[in-house]
Write a structure and sequence with these properties.
- There is one protein chain.
- This protein is 70% helix and 5% strand.
- The chain has a two-stranded antiparallel ribbon.
- By secondary structure, it is mainly alpha-helical.
- The protein folds into 2 domains: 3-64, Winged helix-like DNA-binding domain superfamily/Winged helix DNA-binding domain (Arc Repressor Mutant, subunit A); 69-113, Iron dependent repressor, metal binding and dimerisation domain (Diphtheria Toxin Repressor, domain 2, Orthogonal Bundle).
- Strand 1 and strand 2 (61-63) form a beta hairpin.
- It has helices at residues 3-20, 26-33, 37-49, 65-87, 92-105, 108-117; strands spanning 53-55, 61-63.
Length: 122
């Protein structure tokens, strides 16, 4: 997993957890992703340094404007590719795993073209 891919996975996780819970903490991210707390701690420092997140004195993680935009972009790609592959008959678990890889490597130009050319049911 590349450095950007790792950060994108963390940002996507924080976005999703934020939709389900009133607050997000490092321990929640570790639990969700199945990572050690120490690994999440390093990632949190990196994301703070890149101004993707802010961490309150209580340890609550919130996405900055930049972090939220990046997280939403990754999440949109993930949900699009998962749905598309599932519609094509791919097993949902495999589709989600493949979407997780695809979301990180495709260019914005190609993603927009695919979205434009693929009609998915609402």
């Amino acid at each position: 997993m590349g450095h950007n891919e790792s950060i994108e996975d963390y940002l996507e996780c924080i976005l999703i957890l934020g939709k389900r819970h009133p607050v997000v903490r490092s321990v929640d991210v570790a639990s969700e992703l199945g990572f050690k707390k120490s690994s999440v701690s390093v990632a949190v420092k990196n994301m703070k340094a890149k101004d993707y997140i802010k961490v309150s004195d209580e340890g609550y993680i919130t996405l900055t404007k930049t972090g939220k935009a990046r997280a939403e972009s990754v999440y949109e790609r993930h949900t699009f590719f998962t749905k598309w592959l599932t519609e094509l008959g791919v097993d949902p678990k495999v589709a989600a795993e493949d979407a997780c890889m695809m979301e990180h490597v495709i260019s914005e130009e190609s993603f927009k073209a695919i979205k434009k050319g693929v009609a998915l049911p609402e």
